[in-house]
Design brief:
single chain; mainly alpha; Arc Repressor Mutant, subunit A
Length: 178
């Protein structure tokens, strides 16, 4: 039989697993890495669940853990690349595109192509900018929630979002019809 602590945490997992996976997928561009990142997030959260002071929302706390684990992952990847400078290891970027079946085939192709350009543009953003864009524009978190999750000020969130959106506009301008 599950303890109340375990039942409460199980509910937390069921509530936020998909949202965290969506964020992780956008940050990593790899379904396998995203799944591993989410699993590590929940493992770390479970271990610390008894210490969670509930000063912030549970999902912003989970996002903070996910973002910090992703930063650790990126640092590890960077160190590995530095050690293996002579080897070029590339993995295919995998994204999941859901077709819009209500439009005609030509429109579906245009949307799919634009989605690909948008995904590439988001992936090309500096990590802090990408995190802000994903949390705000994809996940719909408030500025306060993003600041809490990223452990930065609301002003820093606004600044990063403004800069990120400007970079996205510049990168996507050639693909948008005027």
């Amino acid at each position: 039989m599950l303890s109340s602590h375990e039942r409460e945490f199980e509910r937390l997992v069921s509530l936020y697993e998909r949202r965290l996976y969506s964020v992780a997928l956008r940050l990593t561009s790899s379904p396998d890495e995203a799944a591993e990142l989410v699993q590590d997030t929940f493992l770390r959260a479970f271990r610390a669940w008894g210490k969670f002071r509930k000063e912030s929302q549970a999902y912003t706390w989970l996002y903070r853990i996910l973002i910090n684990l992703n930063k650790d992952r990126l640092a590890k990847v960077s160190r590995k690349k530095e050690r293996e400078m002579s080897l070029e290891v590339g993995e295919g970027d995998e994204t999941v595109d859901l077709p819009d079946h209500s439009a005609d085939p030509e429109r579906i192709a245009e949307i799919s192509e634009l989605r690909g350009h948008l995904t590439a543009a988001i992936e090309s953003l500096p990590q802090g900018y990408r995190e802000c864009v994903v949390l705000r524009d994809v996940e719909g978190l408030s500025y306060d929630e993003i600041a809490d999750a990223m452990e930065i000020t609301v002003e820093a969130v606004r600044s990063r979002l403004a800069r990120a959106r400007q970079q996205l506009r510049q990168r996507l301008a050639p693909y948008l019809k005027t």
